[in-house]
Fold:
Amino acid sequence: MTHNFDRIVPRQNTHSYKWDQSKKLFGNADILPLWVADMDFESPPAIKKALQDRAAQGIYGYTIRPESYLSAITSWFERRHKWQIDPAWITDSPGIVTSLSLAVELFSEPGSSVIIQSPVYYPFYDVIRMNDRQIAINPLLQNNGRFEIDFDHLEALMRDGAKLMLFCNPHNPGGRVWEHAELQRLGELSLQYNVLIISDEIHCDLTFPGHPFIPFASLSEELAQNSLTLLAPSKTFNLPGLQSSIVVTPNKELKRKLDYRLKTLSLHMTNYFVPDAIQAAYNDSDLWLDELLVYLRGNLTYALEFIAKEIPQIKAMTPEGTYLLWMDCSELKLDVAELKKLMFQKAEVAFSEGSVFGTEGIGYLRINFACPRSILEEALQRFSRAVREE
Ligand SMILES: Cc1ncc(COP(=O)(O)O)c(C=O)c1O
Structure:
């Protein structure tokens, strides 16, 4: 490996959302944080260099997106995902959650139902509720420890009148990378019932062998016209603090409305650092990503084996993508408050507590395993010790 993912990069006192809030959020400053989805690895060297060069320029003025920024994006998706994006389909947005929220605001009626599949990344709930829409939940089914879509229930929700769906692929927290047949069926239903699909594909580059990622919009021209795809380099290259993402759609009318709203809110300008960082990411960081995926798989194997051996009462779901491990802790027979106490006070680790992903997440925890192996080992040891002492 060219890159050393074992290296510990101290993140305390760096204004880190993950590392500098333990006392405030969990009442314990000594916690090892493996919750919010950013990685404890340095970004690829090409990005660090691009940002250093950009910072060295010293004048931080209003910034344009050069053509080379758009071509870096389109060539990445063609190279890595065999998906041809026309640069004219791209809108910049400060964040995926911003885009999710704008999609709800622009493409559904106040009071109407918006479909999500639970358990799911918690802002999916927020953007529906905070825009005064109703949440229509299609709970995911579990089959042999793997999430599957309940298409009958989904169809019922569509038949009942929901016209918008927020879809997560790969799925957070379960790590499913939805397969062609599943996407196809979802696509057919969306066309049959005229439901617009907002496909959050932020984790698209983080998949494991045997689970190729398929962009929803790549299935057909019709589905591309009936969807917005939300993409970002932030998970892939550990850049969430740069606040950069894109929305892709060939549907001119949807794009026009989105562009207009972003301009209304003056969210259409780019950050000074973003174009250079994104070009370095998408042009010069393939090798880093390939090595990261090998390292993440090693972490995953380690975690799954450790849990099976040391804490067999906990059942972890094997993710097909993402760096998130969803664990069923219901056999511990602890309620939400007790699970939190076990993590934050007894074990001194912070995983994400499952109920925030929906009622289906009660009794679950989610581990972010994108950290040096030694941190993962320490966290799992602390946790298993605390479970044994329960
Ligand atoms: C599925 C999903 N969507 C969106 C985000 C956050 O995106 P952003 O920071 O661009 O709003 C995350 C972060 O964990 C995520 O897992």
